[in-house]
């Protein structure tokens, strides 16, 4: 009976289907100009990149542009990617966030309130309407907060990031993030003091 060494049974990364490979493996392939690996990375991360931009800018068109710019930058800078230095998602969200800050500092003649919402001929349920009202109040309250506090809360509660990853996205320290979250929660509770109990509960400290 022929002997099979352990090494002969070990699959190389190229043996794993592309869709089953992790981001680091896809990035290595992208560095080698693999467009399919890049498209899969885009597919994995475009929705969250857009969501972060939308929550920061509150303008769908601008948010879409920012997400696209960040993902294009991933391709144009593919040869400079350094494995192990940062997660791709962390790098991407930092690019998105920084671009959003740049846009918010630029004078603009457009306003989200001037953009008409698309009509929907389907009646909304009471639960859907109430949920929209909750998130509308949250967004309105967060829109008045300092930029860094709003960003930290957004990444923590909407993107489910830990403090270390938030610090990497914002380019600051974990201690600074902890302070931002603490002050952000306090600020939100103050802004939402007249709102429903379920809204305040979302940001209640453990």
TrEMBL record:
Residues 137-186 form the RNA polymerase sigma factor 70 region 4 type domain. Residues 41-105 form the RNA polymerase sigma-70 region domain. It holds the Pfam family Sigma70_r2. CDD domains: Sigma70_r4. Residues 1-14 have a biased composition (Low complexity). Residues 1-20 are annotated as: Disordered. Keywords: DNA-binding, Sigma factor, Transcription, Transcription regulation. GO terms for molecular function: DNA binding; sigma factor activity. One of its GO terms (biological process) is DNA-templated transcription initiation. Belongs to the sigma-70 factor family. ECF subfamily. This is RNA polymerase sigma factor. It comes from Magnetospirillum aberrantis SpK.
């Amino acid at each position: 009976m022929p002997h099979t060494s352990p090494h002969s049974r070990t699959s190389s990364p190229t043996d794993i289907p592309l869709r089953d490979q992790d981001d680091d493996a896809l990035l290595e392939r992208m560095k080698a100009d693999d467009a399919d690996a890049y498209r899969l990375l885009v597919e994995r991360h475009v929705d969250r990149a857009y969501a972060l931009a939308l929550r920061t800018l509150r303008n769908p068109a601008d948010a879409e542009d920012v997400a696209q710019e960040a993902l294009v930058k991933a391709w144009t800078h593919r040869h400079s990617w350094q494995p192990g230095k940062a997660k791709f998602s962390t790098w991407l969200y930092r690019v998105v966030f920084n671009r959003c800050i740049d846009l918010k500092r630029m004078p603009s003649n457009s306003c989200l309130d001037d953009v008409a919402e698309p009509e929907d001929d389907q009646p909304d349920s009471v639960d859907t309407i109430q949920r929209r009202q909750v998130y509308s109040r949250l967004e309105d309250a967060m829109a008045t907060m300092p930029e860094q506090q709003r960003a930290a809360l957004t990444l923590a509660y909407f993107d489910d990031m830990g403090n270390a990853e938030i610090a990497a996205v914002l380019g600051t320290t974990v201690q600074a993030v902890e302070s931002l979250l603490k002050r952000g929660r306090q600020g939100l509770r103050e802004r939402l003091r007249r709102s429903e109990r379920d809204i305040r509960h979302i940001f209640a400290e453990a």
